[in-house]
Amino acid sequence: MTKPQPNSMDVARRAGVSQSAVSRTFTPGASVSESTRAKVLAAAEELGYRPNVLARSLITGRSHIVALVVAYLDNQFYPVALEKFSKAFQALGYHVLVFMASNADEDVENVLEGLLDYQVDGVIMASVSISNRLAERCESAGVPVVLFNRRQDDERLSAVTSDNVAGGARVADHLVACGHRRIAHVSGWSGSSTGRDRRNGFVDRLAAHGIEPVAILDGMYDRDVAAAATRTLFSGEAASRPDAIFVGSDHMAFAVMDTLRFELGLRIPDDVAVVGYDDVPMAGWPAYDLTTVHQPADGMVDATVETLMARIADKTIAPRILRIDGPLVVRGSTRPHPDPTGGHSRD
Amino acid sequence: MTKPQPNSMDVARRAGVSQSAVSRTFTPGASVSESTRAKVLAAAEELGYRPNVLARSLITGRSHIVALVVAYLDNQFYPVALEKFSKAFQALGYHVLVFMASNADEDVENVLEGLLDYQVDGVIMASVSISNRLAERCESAGVPVVLFNRRQDDERLSAVTSDNVAGGARVADHLVACGHRRIAHVSGWSGSSTGRDRRNGFVDRLAAHGIEPVAILDGMYDRDVAAAATRTLFSGEAASRPDAIFVGSDHMAFAVMDTLRFELGLRIPDDVAVVGYDDVPMAGWPAYDLTTVHQPADGMVDATVETLMARIADKTIAPRILRIDGPLVVRGSTRPHPDPTGGHSRD
DNA sequence: GTGAAAGCGCTAACAA
DNA sequence: TTGTTAGCGCTTTCAC
Question: Are residues A124 and A71 in the same domain?
Answer without folding.
Answer: yes
